[in-house]
Amino acid sequence: xxxxxxxxxxLEAVKKYSEAELVLLLKQRDQTAYSYLYDNYSGALxxxxxxxxxxxxxxxxxxxxxxxxxxxxIESYDDTKGRLFTWMLNISRNASIxxxxxxxxxNSQQNQELTEVKQEAAGSTQLPIDQIGLRKVVHQLKEEYRxxxxxxxxxxxxxxxxxxxxxxxxxxxxxxxxxxLIQLRTVxxx
Amino acid sequence: xNIEEYISSGIIESYVLGLADAxxxxxxxxxxxxxxxxxxxxxxxxxxxxxAAFANTITPAADTKDKLMLALQDEFVDQTNIPNQQxxxxxxxxxxxxxxxAKSAKMFQYxxxxxxxLFVVSATLNVYFFREYTAANKQVVALLNEKNALFTDNNNIxxxxxxxxxxxxxxxxxNVIKVAMKGxxxxxxxxxxxxWNSKSKDVYVLANKxxxxxxxKQYQLWALVKGKPIDAGMLNDCNGVCKLKNTQQADIFAITxxxxxxxxxxxxxxxxxxxxxxx
Lengths: 190, 279
Hints:
The complex is a heterodimer. By secondary structure, chain A is an all-alpha fold.
């Protein structure tokens, strides 16, 4: 509840556009609206990205990419399908997963493992992603649920792929993922 | 189907987070129309997701916004300059599914025609500006090359100018004795000049007119003191005035062509120029 109030308050202080106005102005290519969008949503979207991309610098690169995508794809946003934030959240999640799955990233991760000891000594720029945002919430779930949300939400595997990976029936994956999400919802709402 | 059970099955969260598969999405979107409480549940979960994300914001790097604004600066449209809210680019007009009244159909035709015209104009302008840009780019490259060439020329000229200034200073020094060495019989066309500083005893030679030394050979300066030749140094490939060895005493200066690196005593058959020091 405390979070909810903080959010309300912070929005009141800067509120300028309603979501509908904002979307309309963005579709008209308005710079002020875009600047407003960035100022108001970049922090929240960066936390979403950060849940998947641990390196601070890389996460900022993904954020930049996400805002370019939002700008270029705003025409395709349909407010009858959901809130603007949900739409942007899904763009952020997909861009982050693409980054983490890219070859360049995989290689850099391997190199990092080799120099991990050195990195730790030098003070790495990675934030502990288990301690922020949705990932922190997911961390509180039961192990069998946690794995499913991890694979499905943070790594972008389809339920079919997960069933194959874990060697459990698709029906079980579905049920468990649903149960995990119900729990997730309860935790988020707290 | 019990809608309440359906809503609390996790399908709402799965749908909003983009985890539902195509079949689940189709089913939900179909049920949504008939059951407003599904939409309400979706709205509620979206709102709580947004609230949770805003409770965990991370401040982006300070320069990210500037980079973005710079990258998109050509794509912003200044609303104040557009009187009737029409954007520059042709818009995609979604046709409504309801039958269109005749009057409004006419209107759509006009709008469609207008957007095609706008598109053609925009495409033409693109081609035009791209050509302009290419031409300007070529000009810039040409100008840059020219600038570099001029810069090199300028450097060369400055170096020459410096040499000439040095030579002039040397020649105008009152302590310097100038010895003109003229070509000997048979080599009358040749001329070289020694500048000998009577205080510092520095010797400089200006090869006014000497044939280019053949491969493996070099000109050598001699100071003759009471008929005895003393090596005064080799003329290297210096431009203008060459500094040679300090020479304490000399009655006559002469230049012979010797093997590269010089000889201990002059080969007088290869004497080119000679000049007496006027006392």
